[in-house]
């Protein structure tokens, strides 16, 4: 059984899978203390308990090749259902991508691709960072701490997707020119948040 906040079909708006139609499975719960700036606070509550079988059935109904599993912090539920679900998804030939902050660690036997979004001041240790397929940090108003943290990881620039700050379309557009220059200078991917640009503050899209 898994605690689920929402499941919906959309387009991946961020990171290396950006632009691809995908089913999003947002699992409930995160590591405490919660981040004060959390933009998915509604997913921190316990959520609805759903069987792996039922989740799989709904995911397959969308006939989409990519499944994005996010949260909250999805790996908190690895032992209690997520590992079993991943295995079923892969048996069906689906591609699995995780969105994680790394705050709950990364289980040894994860097979899906992990896109790691470290939170300000909470960058995971090297043993967690090395498990990431890509890094997707959020650019802050003062870029220096983020840039230093990225460089300290030793990740090659082509594995870094630097995201524009802002939870609304207006804020995104406002911060993009600075992000553009930073990405050009350091060789990182310029990572707009497409769902915000298209739908503004609307959730579940
Ligand atoms: S790690 Fe992410 S989901 Fe969890 S509290 Fe922090 S911002 Fe929210």
UniProtKB/TrEMBL annotation:
<dbReference type="GO" id="GO:0000287">
    <property type="term" value="F:magnesium ion binding"/>
</dbReference>
<comment type="pathway">
    <text>Purine metabolism; 7-cyano-7-deazaguanine biosynthesis.</text>
</comment>
<keyword id="KW-0411">Iron-sulfur</keyword>
<keyword id="KW-0408">Iron</keyword>
<comment type="similarity">
    <text>Belongs to the radical SAM superfamily. 7-carboxy-7-deazaguanine synthase family.</text>
</comment>
<feature type="binding site">
    <location>
        <position position="38"/>
    </location>
    <ligand>
        <name>[4Fe-4S] cluster</name>
    </ligand>
</feature>
<dbReference type="GO" id="GO:1904047">
    <property type="term" value="F:S-adenosyl-L-methionine binding"/>
</dbReference>
<dbReference type="InterPro" id="IPR007197">
    <property type="entry name" value="rSAM"/>
</dbReference>
<comment type="subunit">
    <text>Homodimer.</text>
</comment>
<dbReference type="GO" id="GO:0008616">
    <property type="term" value="P:tRNA queuosine(34) biosynthetic process"/>
</dbReference>
<feature type="binding site">
    <location>
        <position position="40"/>
    </location>
    <ligand>
        <name>Mg(2+)</name>
    </ligand>
</feature>
<feature type="binding site">
    <location>
        <position position="70"/>
    </location>
    <ligand>
        <name>substrate</name>
    </ligand>
</feature>
<feature type="binding site">
    <location>
        <begin position="11"/>
        <end position="13"/>
    </location>
    <ligand>
        <name>substrate</name>
    </ligand>
</feature>
<keyword id="KW-0460">Magnesium</keyword>
<keyword id="KW-0479">Metal-binding</keyword>
<keyword id="KW-0456">Lyase</keyword>
<keyword id="KW-0949">S-adenosyl-L-methionine</keyword>
<dbReference type="InterPro" id="IPR013785">
    <property type="entry name" value="Aldolase_TIM"/>
</dbReference>
<dbReference type="GO" id="GO:0016840">
    <property type="term" value="F:carbon-nitrogen lyase activity"/>
</dbReference>
<feature type="binding site">
    <location>
        <position position="72"/>
    </location>
    <ligand>
        <name>S-adenosyl-L-methionine</name>
    </ligand>
</feature>
<dbReference type="GO" id="GO:0051539">
    <property type="term" value="F:4 iron, 4 sulfur cluster binding"/>
</dbReference>
<keyword id="KW-0004">4Fe-4S</keyword>
<feature type="binding site">
    <location>
        <begin position="117"/>
        <end position="119"/>
    </location>
    <ligand>
        <name>S-adenosyl-L-methionine</name>
    </ligand>
</feature>
<comment type="function">
    <text>Catalyzes the complex heterocyclic radical-mediated conversion of 6-carboxy-5,6,7,8-tetrahydropterin (CPH4) to 7-carboxy-7-deazaguanine (CDG), a step common to the biosynthetic pathways of all 7-deazapurine-containing compounds.</text>
</comment>
<feature type="binding site">
    <location>
        <begin position="37"/>
        <end position="39"/>
    </location>
    <ligand>
        <name>S-adenosyl-L-methionine</name>
    </ligand>
</feature>
<feature type="domain" description="Radical SAM core">
    <location>
        <begin position="35"/>
        <end position="104"/>
    </location>
</feature>
<dbReference type="Pfam" id="PF04055">
    <property type="entry name" value="Radical_SAM"/>
</dbReference>
<dbReference type="InterPro" id="IPR058240">
    <property type="entry name" value="rSAM_sf"/>
</dbReference>
<feature type="binding site">
    <location>
        <position position="30"/>
    </location>
    <ligand>
        <name>[4Fe-4S] cluster</name>
    </ligand>
</feature>
<dbReference type="InterPro" id="IPR024924">
    <property type="entry name" value="7-CO-7-deazaguanine_synth-like"/>
</dbReference>
<feature type="binding site">
    <location>
        <position position="26"/>
    </location>
    <ligand>
        <name>substrate</name>
    </ligand>
</feature>
<feature type="binding site">
    <location>
        <position position="35"/>
    </location>
    <ligand>
        <name>[4Fe-4S] cluster</name>
    </ligand>
</feature>
<keyword id="KW-0671">Queuosine biosynthesis</keyword>
<protein>
    <recommendedName>
        <fullName>7-carboxy-7-deazaguanine synthase</fullName>
        <ecNumber>4.3.99.3</ecNumber>
    </recommendedName>
</protein>
